[in-house]
Specification:
Layout lengths: L2 H5 L2 H29 L5 H27 L4 H5 L3 H10 L5 H23 L4 H10 L5 H15 L3 H26 L1 H8 L9 H22 L4
């Protein structure tokens, strides 16, 4: 499927705009949250590193925004449908402290990003490449794993609390992704496919959620937490 052919299809165009819109708002809020988490950083080095990660997230937002502009779409209009569900997710999963904020950025956001990477398999090559570039690890994983494991080593009791937090995050993140896909007809159609474009059948959906679960378990293990 070439980009020209894909965007000649109004249904496909609406789905791609939805995908870019939800990702753009997700990156914008990620920038805000990481910048806010930097205020709680216990050391100056931690504060500086989080500020760098926040800057990277904003750069990703700019890339997605610019792609929407290239498509002749107002980025604010594309993001608007996702403000309420994403804000609700973040309200329900507000971290209580610095460590919970780190786990949320790594585990919760990681699962959501995995889901959208799966969705990106069904878009045109240029859009897919942008999505994969935006979700490439920018050093966040190493930073979070180092800080969380060090904290647990110093106080092993933290492990149980953070493991429970991680399990709550995965449930909330999966529910959020499913709600967004179900509520937005273009995204649902993208996953379902059409006569000339393959989509996900029930078996493929099952395999997708198996991959999402396995990736989540790997992240929790890297943190030294029980999934």
């Amino acid at each position: 499927m070439t980009e020209l052919t894909a965007f000649d299809d109004p249904a496909y165009r609406a789905a791609a705009v939805d995908l870019l819109g939800v990702l753009a708002y997700g990156e914008l809020t990620a920038f805000e949250r990481i910048a806010e988490d930097a205020k709680l950083a216990p050391t100056l080095d931690d504060k500086a590193q989080l500020a760098q990660l926040a800057t990277t997230e904003f750069g990703h937002f700019v890339q997605l925004r610019d792609r929407l502009v290239e498509l002749g779409v107002d980025p604010m209009d594309a993001m608007e449908p996702f403000v309420t569900p994403l804000d609700a997710f973040h309200d329900h999963t507000a971290p209580a402290d610095w460590l919970e904020g780190l786990v949320k950025a790594y585990v919760g956001d990681g699962l959501a990003n995995d889901f959208y990477r799966e969705v990106a398999a069904y878009v045109d090559a240029e859009t897919r490449a942008l999505v994969l570039e935006v979700f490439a690890d920018s050093g966040q994983a190493e930073f979070v794993v180092d800080r969380v494991r060090a904290a647990i080593e110093e106080d092993p009791k933290l492990g149980g609390r953070l493991a429970l937090w991680g399990r709550r995050l995965v449930g909330e993140a999966l529910s959020q992704a499913q709600r967004i896909a179900a509520d937005r007809d273009p995204l649902a159609a993208l996953l379902a496919g059409s006569v000339d474009r393959p989509g996900l059948d029930l078996a493929a959906i099952g395999r997708m959620f198996t991959r999402l679960t396995e990736a989540h378990t790997a992240r929790m293990t890297a943190l030294g937490l029980q999934a």
